[in-house]
């Protein structure tokens, strides 16, 4: 079983990026803290299943999902069952994560699966452990979150400016089209008046010279 633990437990599909960095990136992508389930599926589903999950083709049920290892699937299933037993079927009422239930889903207590060397409390709940304190990495993380908030605010401002400019351009185009239509109507009226004048002139000439 040792080989099973050291081999399968270390495998995931998140590449060389740590779980804490994956959590941070997901928070930026989603615009909210990800649940531990989302983080775990993001780092332990195979490529096609991961794409389908984020496309909304799966709910949080593991049915139909392809995990990178059998152990990751079994652990996820156990954790999902414990979460439902404790918090009910409505997952909107579930917390971001539950460290005790994740530890319980492991069975044997070795290195906690799905967390690596990261702060387990932070990975499960999004909140650093009290024992960690204000470490440089935590301070850097908080600073990064503030920068992300400022960036989002700037993006919203730019989007508002873009929408205003787009509406101004649309109005200018509508005005240009109106002016062009009026010009075409005026040109058509002028052309019709000229044609009518020519017709009337021709009719007048024939009227002054009746046939013999």
Please give a structural write-up:
With 212 residues, this protein is mainly α. It has 2 domains: 2-133, no CATH class; 150-212. It is 67% helix and 0% strand. The chain has 8 helices and no strands. The chain has helices spanning 2-8, 19-30, 36-44, 47-54, 70-87, 99-106, 120-125, 136-208. The chain is elongated. Residues 1-10 and 132-136 have low confidence and may be disordered.
Describe the structure concisely:
With 212 residues, the chain is an all-alpha fold. It is built from 8 helices and no strands. The chain has helices at residues 2-8, 19-30, 36-44, 47-54, 70-87, 99-106, 120-125, 136-208.
SSE arrangement:
Blueprint: H1 2-8, H2 19-30, H3 36-44, H4 47-54, H5 70-87, H6 99-106, H7 120-125, H8 136-208
* Major sheet details: none
Task: Write down the overall geometry.
Answer: elongated
Number of helices: 8
Share in β-strands: under 5%
Which sequence of SSEs, written as H and E, runs from N to C?
A: HHHHHHHH
Total strand segments: 0
Could you report the average pLDDT, rounded to the nearest whole number? Answer: 80
Give me the Rg, rounded: 34 Å
Label the structural class: mainly alpha
Poorly predicted regions: 1-10, 132-136
Q: Write down the domain tally.
A: 2
Q: What's the helical proportion of residues?
A: 55-70%
InterPro entries: Probable_transposase_24
Pfam families: Transposase_24
Keywords: Coiled coil
Coiled coil: 141-194
């Amino acid at each position: 079983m040792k080989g099973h633990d050291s081999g399968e437990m270390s495998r995931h599909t998140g590449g060389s990026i740590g779980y804490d960095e994956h959590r941070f990136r997901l928070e930026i992508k989603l615009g909210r803290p990800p649940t531990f389930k989302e983080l775990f599926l993001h780092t332990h589903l195979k490529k096609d299943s991961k794409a389908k999950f984020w496309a909304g083709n799966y709910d949080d049920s593991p049915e139909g999902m392809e995990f990178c290892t059998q152990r990751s699937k079994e652990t996820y299933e156990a954790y999902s069952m414990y979460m439902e037993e404790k918090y009910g079927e409505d997952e909107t009422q579930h917390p971001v994560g539950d460290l005790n239930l994740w530890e319980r889903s492991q069975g044997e207590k070795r290195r906690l699966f799905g967390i690596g060397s990261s702060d387990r409390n932070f990975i499960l709940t999004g909140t650093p452990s009290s024992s960690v304190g204000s470490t440089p990495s935590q301070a850097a993380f908080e600073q990064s979150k503030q920068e992300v908030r400022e960036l989002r605010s700037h993006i919203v401002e730019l989007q508002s400016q873009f929408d205003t400019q787009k509406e101004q351009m649309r109005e200018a185009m509508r005005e240009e089209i109106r002016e062009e239509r009026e010009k075409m109507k005026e040109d058509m009226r002028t052309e019709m008046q000229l044609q009518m004048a020519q017709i009337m002139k021709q009719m007048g000439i024939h009227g002054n010279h009746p046939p013999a």
